[in-house]
Amino acid sequence: MTAPALVNLRSEQLCADIDPTGAQLFALRDSDGRDLLWNGDPAVWAGRAPVLFPIVGVLAGGNYRLGAKSYSLPRHGFARNRVFSVESSNPTAAVFRLSEDDETLRVYPFRFNLDMQFKLSGPMLSVTATIHNRGDEAMPASFGFHPAFRWPLSQDQARAAHFIEFASDEPDAVRRLDAAGLLTPERHPTPIVQRRLMLKDELFEADALILDRIRSRSVVYGAEAGPRLLVRFADAPYLGIWSKPGAQFVCIEPWHGISDASGFSGDFREKLGMNLIAPGSSFSTTMAISLNGYD
User: Fold this and answer.
1) pLDDT tier for residue 21 given thresholds of 50, 70 and 90
2) Whether CATH 2.70.98.10 fits 7-291
3) Domain parsing of the chain, residue ranges
4) Full-prediction pTM beyond 0.90?
5) Nearest to 8 by CA among 26, 21, 22
């Protein structure tokens, strides 16, 4: 099957390419043509900015229970591998939609629309996810953003010079995942010092760093010199930060959902971080990425 064509958006300061497969941000460049997003090298990690739906992370045993029935879902759900329809498109904005079909209903028995809206305005790209429950019962759903930014963001700056700076103090302990990708019960001292997380490979030897008591509503990523990015997430209850040791990317991931806790065996509707969307209702969340800390 021929891959669907990328949708191109452009402002004076940024240009963005979006792939209808997964409604994934495929490329993000500044006005000088500098790539800000990871290139999806499959030898390292093929993702770029996948959409996480209807779960974030992994399920204990790869399965979930809904009443008396059991279903299977892969890590981060199925949306990132599905082709979205292009509902609308103009030079600065586009909307993509995924709806249930026979294949999704076999693993997730709910009728839904997942709309992904991308909008460029000057130096800012906003991405809004809207999940609409088209069924007649409450629909459990999680959602997560997963953008991977270049690390180093500029070749003029060393990887070791890069940091993530939080808008607020983040003194609370952080969470980690076990080898199966499940949330461990232990809490670990935060590596964030005076609102700044200095990026280094050792942080990611045990997978993602997870803030489940996040206070900040934005972070700045970059180095002391060169370009910086401001990432805003007005309502996400979790923030994941992930890379692979030695990789040339770092992911800053606002989540509405999280991996199962190790040993969890409850009903899907009781899953940690799960949202229950009433029949006929919608849930929306927005992430905004701005160049040079524009606000």
Assistant:
1) very high
2) yes
3) 7-291
4) yes
5) 26
